[in-house]
Amino acid sequence: xxxxxxxxxxxxxxxxxxxxxxxxxxxxxxxxxxxxxxxxxxxxxxxxxxxxxxxxxxxxxxxxxxxxxxxxxxxxxxxxxxxxxxxxxxxxxxxxxxxxxxxxxxxxxxxxxxxxxxxxxxxxxxxxxxxxxxxxxxxxxxxxxxxxxxxxxxxxxxxxxxxxxxxxxxxxxxxxxxxxxxxxxxxxxxxxxxxxxxxxxxxxxxxxxxxxxxxxxxxxxxxxxxxxxxxxxxxxxxxxxxxxxxxxxxxxxxxxxxxxxxxxxxxxxxxxxxxxxxxxxxxxxxxxxxxxxxxxxxxxxxxxxxxxxxxxxxxxxxxxxxxxxxxxxxxxxxx
Amino acid sequence: xxxxxxxxxxxxxxxxxxxxxxxxxxxxxxxxxxxxxxxxxxxxxxxxxxxxxxxxxxxxxxxxxxxxxxxxxxxxxxxxx
Lengths: 335, 81
Known about the structure:
By secondary structure, chain A is mostly helical. Chain A has 15 helices and two strands. A two-stranded antiparallel sheet of chain A has the order 1-2. In chain A, α5 (94-103) crosses α6 (106-124) and α14 packs across α15. Chain B is an alpha+beta fold. In chain B, α1 runs parallel beside α2. Classes of the chains: A mainly alpha, B alpha+beta. At the A-B interface, α2 and α13 of A face α1 and α2 of B.
């Protein structure tokens, strides 16, 4: 019960920022390439630069243990690329699709449905064979470097693989991101409701509270989306108890709905072209398949895994971006 | 606003970034001085499309609210020079 309450609180805060800041990783990645616009990408990168320091600090204090995702080179390359293409087709990444459900976008409802269904099928259902087929590539280690910061068995990180203290790599990585964020030119969006710095800074306490509250209620990980949709699907179809992440996803939808309503931005949006539903249905399927094979989506892998220095999440993150750029080029880039 | 609209595109309900891309494609096919009318219902499109139009050297004549979370954007092609 505590897990559900904590998950819900985290999700409500997360959903509010996602809606107000229009935080969509799909557009953050795509706009870099398509519009030469780095506004959202910088907001997300700023949050990650701080997470890189905050997560190990929390682990140092013993509030959490880092638990980076396993490395699976096949799953993360193939799944990452599929997920990257899926977010373009679905018109939103895992988190973007989720908060748009609350804003009344009917195309996102379709995407969320096929995303949840497919992720559940790969993790626990009829498509589980795919996950089994790649399972022999899965790598987990018992860290010998910075072992005090980690759970006993975790995915390899830059620190455990290079045998360099986690803090040293985290500080260098964070400094590089800070240099990028503040040392390069940022696209101006004077009409945006939240500045990119505000978005980035607001995301950090949510990520930190999420990680802590999820950890102490038994789920050793921070923010995520895919596992939440799987939990909701299993609750609905099998009567299983909702977990922290499932409550978080519900919180995001509720907060996005209230926030959109308050800003007069809620509307049942229906496209003129019926084929848009087919496109988002395929996109959602790609999201579910890709996230399940890569062990996480843009939130679990990119936003929460990379700041733990997880090698699997880094590979998945790069492939998310490449898949996104490829599909953006295919659909919108060629004029 | 009362102007002679040359071309209208209805992007209501469309998936991001279809409205932005369609708008770009539309103004590329139009002549200088012509007016493009874009109907959108997504707040982000209402913010991004005018900003991108200005960047591309067009003039945003008006952004009118036509209903709950619905807007009509009027863009004059090449109007910024």
